[in-house]
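QA checklist item 7 of 12: single-chain prediction sanity check.
[x] sequence parsed
[x] length recorded as 112
[x] structure emitted
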Amino acid sequence: MSKSHFDRVGIKNKMARASQLAQVRLSSAVLTDSNRFIPMDTGVLKASGRLENDNKQVAWNTPYAHRVYNLAETSIKTQKNPNAKPKWFEWAKALNIKGWMEIVQKTIKGEF
């Protein structure tokens, strides 16, 4: 009878690394996809987008980001970005959630 060795610590470490990588890839995709809907004037708002909190959050860091995010759609200027929308993350999520899930699944499985 042969014995097999189960490396619980090794598997746990491998899963932790894969989860961290999946989080970075997911957050990066969320930032990129959300930026497609960012209202543009000078480009400062879009450029302020960052991954924060160990790559677990996407944030736009301007004094006016929250206000612009919550504007009425009729208040959003689309001259510089025809795709500009308020609540840009929600628009990106609606269009990309399946792709975001696929990024995470493939990264965890080691297929990415």
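[x] summary fact logged: Strands lie at 49-52, 57-60.
[ ] second reviewer sign-off
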